[in-house]
Write a structure and sequence with these properties.
Elements: E1 8-10, H1 16-22, E2 30-32, E3 38-39, E4 44-45, H2 50-59, E5 64-68, H3 71-86, H4 109-117, H5 127-130, E6 131-135, E7 140-143, E8 147-159, E9 171-181, E10 184-190, E11 214-220, E12 233-238, E13 241-245, H6 251-257, E14 265-269, H7 275-278, H8 281-285, E15 292-295, H9 297-311, H10 315-319, E16 323-326, E17 333-335, E18 338-344, E19 352-358, E20 361-365, H11 373-381, H12 387-394, E21 402-406, H13 416-420, H14 424-427, E22 430-433, E23 457-458, H15 467-477, H16 490-496, E24 498-502, E25 507-509, E26 517-523, E27 526-530, E28 533-538, E29 543-544, H17 546-551, E30 558-561, E31 565-571, H18 572-578, H19 584-596, H20 599-605, H21 614-621, E32 625-629, E33 634-636, E34 644-657, E35 670-671, H22 674-679, E36 685-699, H23 700-709, H24 711-717, E37 722-723
Parallel strand pairs: 1-2, 2-5, 5-6, 13-14, 14-15, 15-16, 20-21, 21-22
Antiparallel strand pairs: 3-4, 7-8, 8-9, 9-10, 11-12, 11-23, 12-13, 17-18, 18-19, 19-20, 24-31, 25-30, 26-29, 26-31, 27-28, 27-30, 32-36, 33-36, 34-35, 34-36, 35-37
Helix pairs in contact: 3-9, 11-12, 23-24
Length: 724
């Protein structure tokens, strides 16, 4: 906000520097960091200090001042910034390289990081070269003798009718900041940053996007200072399944909006820990199901240190939110039948690029790197690089079918000159990323990558003989109860499942008709209609049709294709045959009864559960056991082991104990001491039914299974006993 003493920014949401550029605002050098640095609900930073610091230091040649709540916050931000600047100066780990990879061609991280940290004076930069911290003392501080900042608690429904800022009349609750200049009140604003809710799956637009057998979607092709372009990020397609590469902020909601659901994405590649590459990674890890993360152990350690400092969540708790497959340099990592070969680039912190081979074609992504043979030669002469490391960097694999190469501002990035000097036969296959379109002169014969699903680079390949079998197994493995089937049943699944396609408007299931098939969606969207009224939507990775098969009753609703829909189907005999000898039919009977009841509606009414995807809601429904609530009944007693959680349908329940809310809980409240359950502690409260009604009981073991399968939900519920 403008003040007579210059601009002051309160709050640092993601990509805040781009917002300032887009609005044509004067760039502040004073930033007030909110009390909460991280939004667990969204998995996003609320203190994105990296690019404001870089812009001020490298472009405006000045340090920024960060106003923080206390010294501990300053320490957390220093830790986070240190990882971005030089990744805590790591030593090269020989275990990250295949035995055949030449030892002298491996990067010497300590030496390379020191080179990039050195300024013109030869001194290595540190965090304090970019940042000054100002700690609030008793909730107040004074800057430059003129600017006074005060934090206080706002009264409910307080109005900020400030003469100096008449536009700022929002209702204020909770902590607020008062900003005064020369004693005059300029503004009163909320201290806490509120991000909008995620786009829910049921709100997604219908899309006819067909994932390619092999190719790549550019989600962003620019850099952190380009207000007109999204930061670099990609979606690599292999066998119709996706792998995210450095996903930009809010990637999943964006993809959902276009009908590409989380269930078709099998993992995330993290190339390095700069904010324009990692800020959307954690959000994806918390999205749906347990995501697999591909990176090197060196980069992973930096990522955990950075986000533990930012979120104030222990590294071991963050590590439990995803599955990790270490990338080994010089050795193939197999994903969905493709071979990925990772390599370390030349950048200010450890960074990886990769080559991909699939169906007789290939693709290479440079990631952030300095590809400039002359500059690389100079570094070798200085002893920063060995001759073998120099050769590996200069011999970039431009021979691939598709080449995605970054271009940016040296000395951290590739200048345009060396790329423009490449032969035309290479430039025909090369797309520039990490650069604004306006910065690419047309006379160079280089082209910027086009962004969006419609511009997906589709590489025609000879589909491997196993491709359809792989797709079938991937689809069914994304369903929680099918993952529990023994491997011996895979052969039977391959024989029994059939492929089907439905056109837009086609009725796949007819209400009241006899049910004969079970359906799993590969791509597309269907609508569930009951008596002509819309109920909900299902998307890729969702399943339907099990109720009629398990309960031997007519179909309870119409299911209509909203777009072109690809499906895998099992007939009644095949479906029940595969599930024989397991407890899955019991769970599916629970699901069928829960779907008949109003459990879905209760999910929609609960602030925490409403954000679940349709697949997550369906999985949770399989654990719901309906019970009656009797007045005076104790659901649990303080000090007893935790054996269940409860979702209230009707009636009221009161909690008693430390920190318990006085008012009783009613319909749609979820009573679940998740932290105590995870840690094996006893109940910290007692729960008594105040008025009779109904509820759903969730066994403790089932809730733990759900939280383990959906670590993002676990983090959101961490530390609370109830959720309205």
């Amino acid at each position: 906000m403008p003040t007579p003493a210059g601009p002051v920014q309160i709050g640092l949401p993601p990509e805040t520097i781009k917002d300032a550029i887009a609005l044509g605002l004067e760039h502040p050098s004073i930033y007030v960091v909110p009390p909460e640095l991280f939004d667990r609900r969204r998995g996003l930073s609320l203190a994105e200090i990296e690019f404001p610091a870089y812009y001020n230091y490298f472009i405006l040649k000045r340090r920024i001042r960060l106003v923080v709540e206390d010294e501990r916050t300053a320490t957390r931000l220093r830790t986070m910034m240190r990882e971005s600047l030089f990744a805590s100066r790591p030593e090269t780990d020989p275990e990250e390289f295949a035995p055949s990879y030449p030892a002298l061609a491996r990067p010497d991280f300590a030496r390379e990081m020191d080179h990039f940290r050195r300024g013109a004076d030869g001194r290595c930069r540190d965090v304090d070269d970019l940042l000054d911290f100002v700690v609030l003392d008793g909730g107040r501080c004074t800057l430059d003798g003129r600017i006074e900042l005060r934090r206080r608690e706002a009264a409910p429904s307080e109005r900020a009718g400030v003469e100096a800022a008449p536009h700022d009349r929002a209702s204020l609750e909770g902590p607020v900041y008062e900003l005064r200049v020369d004693g005059t009140l300029c503004a009163t604003v909320p201290a806490l940053v509120e991000l909008p809710e995620k786009l829910l799956p049921s709100q997604a637009r219908v899309s006819s996007f067909e994932p390619p057998d092999f190719g790549i979607t550019v989600l962003g092709a620019s850099h952190g200072f380009d207000a007109a372009g999204k930061t670099t990020g990609f979606l690599l397609w292999i066998g119709g399944r996706g792998i995210l590469i450095d996903p930009p902020v809010d990637t999943t909601p964006h993809l959902r909006e276009h009908g590409v659901m989380p269930k078709v994405i099998d993992g995330v590649v993290l190339t390095h820990c700069h904010a324009d590459h990692d800020s959307g990674v954690f959000a994806k890890l918390l999205e749906e199901g347990r995501t697999r993360l591909y990176t090197t152990p060196t980069i992973l350690r930096s990522f955990l240190r950075k986000y533990s400092a930012l979120s104030d969540i222990a590294e071991e708790d963050l590590r439990r939110t995803f599955s990790f497959t270490p990338a080994k340099i010089g050795q193939a990592t197999v994903i969905n039948g493709a071979e990925l070969y990772f390599f370390y680039t030349l950048h200010s912190i450890p960074t990886i690029g990769f080559e991909v081979f699939y169906g007789g074609k290939s693709l290479v992504f440079s990631s952030d790197t300095l590809y400039d043979p002359a500059a690389i030669d100079a570094l070798a002469e200085k002893g920063v690089l060995t001759r073998e490391r120099r050769d590996a960097l200069v011999d970039f694999p431009f021979h691939h079918t598709v080449v995605l190469h970054e271009a940016g501002v040296p000395p951290l990035h590739t200048p345009l000159g060396p790329l423009a000097a490449l032969p035309d036969s290479v430039k025909e296959r090369l797309w520039l990323v990490h650069i604004a379109k306006k910065d690419v002169p047309p006379e160079l014969g280089l082209k910027s990558a086009e962004v969006g699903l419609d511009a997906t680079l589709r590489i025609q390949v000879d589909k491997p003989a196993y491709a359809e079998a792989m797709e079938l197994l991937n689809v069914f493995c994304s369903i929680d109860f099918f993952r529990e089937l023994p491997l011996s049943r895979s052969r039977e699944l391959l024989m029994l499942a059939k492929r089907r396609r439905a056109e837009p408007g086609e009725k796949i299931i007819t209400q009241d008709a006899e049910g004969h098939e079970f359906f799993v969606i590969v791509s597309g969207t269907v609508a569930v209609m009951r008596d002509g009224d819309y109920v909900k939507s299902y998307h890729a990775g969702d399943y339907f049709g099990e109720t009629a098969l398990v309960l031997s009753q007519p179909r309870t609703a119409d299911v209509v294709a909203r777009s072109a829909v690809d499906l895998w189907t099992l007939d009644r005999h095949g479906f029940l045959y595969l599930l024989r000898g397991t407890d899955i039919p019991t769970r599916l009977m629970r699901l069928a009864r829960a779907r008949e009841a109003r459990s879905w509606e209760l999910f929609e009414q609960n602030g925490a559960l409403r954000q679940l995807s349709s697949a997550q809601k369906t999985q949770l429904q399989t654990f719901l056991e309906p019970i009656e609530l009797k007045a005076g009944e104790r659901l649990w007693t303080r000090g007893e082991p935790i054996d269940a959680a409860y979702l209230i349908d009707a009636g009221q329940v009161r909690l008693e104990g430390d920190g318990a809310r006085r008012e009783p809980f009613g319909s749609a409240a979820l009573l679940a001491e998740t932290s105590a359950l995870r840690e094996g502690r006893a109940h910290g409260s007692s729960a008594e039914v105040q008025s009779a009604g109904r509820a759903y009981r969730i066994e403790a073991a089932d809730l733990l299974r759900f939280l383990d399968d959906n670590p993002g939900v676990s983090l959101q519920l961490l530390g609370s006993s109830w959720f309205d």
